[in-house]
Design the sequence.
């Protein structure tokens, strides 16, 4: 028997995505690149655990909006917005299983830029070109619009300004950059969100469980 991918080396691992055995080298090289790995694959889980233990902080060039300061107390104060955005992302993934981290990062980054310009009084909107990222961008925008509508109906509730929403999107973008692994089919950040927000109703009652990057 030989590896189902390279057809050279002896197969050592069963790949649930392929339904066949593959070698360790192909597993490591093609994981979340050409192989659409399910989140419960034991080899994927082990690889992510190793990556998390050896993860390096984002460099200056990798750090989104490095000139922007996002205070920890501000994030916790507006935690329901974070919960809502995370739930919108996970709800979208439930309907579109093909969604990947690159799609999510693109959607969040585009929304952050839209909110940044709106905060300066400039109307600018440029959704991502990729279909899933573009649709997710609309999903996040729809949540923010609905959240503001509900806040306006509650006496004494804090209004969500464009500048505040921008800071929250920057926070999420930084977390996403830190948690994903950069592979084209990665869902590491999506799985990270799911582990923190298992169910919208439960997550809304929990204390924040994301460490500020």
Sequence:
């Amino acid at each position: 028997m030989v590896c189902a991918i390279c057809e050279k080396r002896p197969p050592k691992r069963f790949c649930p995505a392929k339904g066949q055995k593959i070698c360790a080298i192909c597993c490591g090289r093609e994981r979340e690149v050409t192989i659409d790995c399910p989140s419960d694959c034991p080899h994927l889980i082990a690889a992510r655990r190793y990556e998390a233990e050896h993860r390096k902080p984002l460099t200056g060039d990798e750090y989104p909006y490095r000139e922007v300061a996002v205070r920890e107390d501000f994030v916790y104060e507006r935690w329901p917005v974070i919960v809502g955005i995370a739930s919108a992302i996970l709800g979208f993934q439930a309907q579109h299983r093909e969604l990947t981290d690159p799609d999510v990062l693109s959607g969040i980054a585009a929304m952050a830029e839209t909110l940044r310009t709106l905060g300066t009084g400039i109307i600018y909107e440029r959704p991502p070109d990729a279909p899933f990222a573009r649709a997710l961008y609309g999903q996040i925008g729809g949540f923010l619009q609905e959240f503001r509508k509900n806040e306006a109906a509650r006496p004494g509730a804090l209004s969500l300004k464009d500048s505040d929403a921008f800071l929250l999107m920057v926070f999420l973008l930084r977390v996403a950059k830190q948690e994903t692994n950069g592979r084209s089919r990665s869902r590491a950040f999506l799985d990270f969100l799911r582990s923190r927000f298992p169910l919208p109703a439960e997550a809304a009652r929990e204390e924040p469980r994301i460490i500020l990057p």
Observations:
- The two ends are 46 Å apart (CA to CA).
